[in-house]
Design a protein that fits this description.
With about 210 residues, the chain is of the alpha+beta class. It is built from six helices and six strands, in the order ααααβαβαββββ. It has helices at about 10-20, 45-60, 65-80, 85-95, 110-115, 155-170; strands spanning about 100-105, 145-150, 180, 190-195, 200-205, 210-214. Strands 3-4-5-6 form a four-stranded antiparallel β-sheet, with no helix packed on it. A two-stranded antiparallel ribbon has the order 1-2. The chain starts with 8 loop residues before the first helix and ends with a strand.
Length: about 210
């Protein structure tokens, strides 16, 4: 750069000065969650614990198994230490909106997610490994996948989108979803589903370059 802009030595000096003043680090970026507490006197962790134990009464009206209590307390300790309660509260609010959404993936290893109604895997009859879902070594909030019932996909998704926009107070909402490709389609083509908020569900025939709305 010094050779290419030899006639502008002051510009080179300014470039170095600006570089020295840049102190931003990616570690400064953090997730920000909306306020989901119905009682400002409680912390997010206390709110999560309250909802959790209330959920056990619905999930296990007759008797709460001892090993489920152990799992809930272990998860409570880790989420409290890592400060992940706001993440659970936000997902819990979204899943509860249409009443037809459910969490899946590694979140199924969480007893807390089960009693909240986020997932349906019963920790009383399943061997759960919570560390697959949340671990202090990963150092990032858990990823909770949420599925909407196919028959109500668009309707329920729109309800969730409107809620997020209102709660987070943003002007626009975007979604990035990996495409799902089906091979061996009729005629030897391949079809790919691209799910986005703005254009809905589109099937793309990469072989011919055609896009078919579904």
């Amino acid at each position: 750069m010094a050779r290419l802009f030899a006639q502008y030595p002051e510009a080179i000096a300014k470039t170095l000065d600006m570089a020295d003043r840049c102190r931003f680090s990616l570690e400064e970026l953090t997730y920000q969650y909306p306020e989901e507490r119905d009682d400002a006197s409680r912390t997010p962790q206390q709110t999560l614990e309250k909802l959790t134990w209330e959920g056990t009464e619905t999930r296990y009206p007759d008797s709460l198994p001892d090993h489920v209590v152990t799992s809930l307390r272990q998860e409570r300790s880790l989420t409290d230490r890592l400060g992940y309660a706001p993440c659970f509260l936000t997902v819990n609010s979204i899943v509860g909106l249409p009443g037809r959404a459910t969490g899946r993936g590694s979140a199924a290893n969480s007893a807390v997610c089960c009693v909240l109604g986020i997932t349906a895997i019963d920790p009383a009859i399943s061997d759960l490994l919570f560390e697959r879902f949340v671990s202090k070594e990963r150092r990032e909030p858990p990823n909770i996948d949420v599925d909407f019932v196919a028959e109500h996909f668009v309707e329920d998704r729109d309800i969730a989108d409107e809620y997020v926009v209102r709660r987070v107070q943003v002007g626009e909402l975007g979604s990035v979803v990996p495409p799902c490709t089906w091979r061996n389609q009729p005629g030897g083509t391949r079809a790919t589903d691209w799910r986005t908020i703005s254009v809905g569900l589109i099937a793309t025939d990469r072989g011919s370059g055609r896009s078919l709305s579904r």
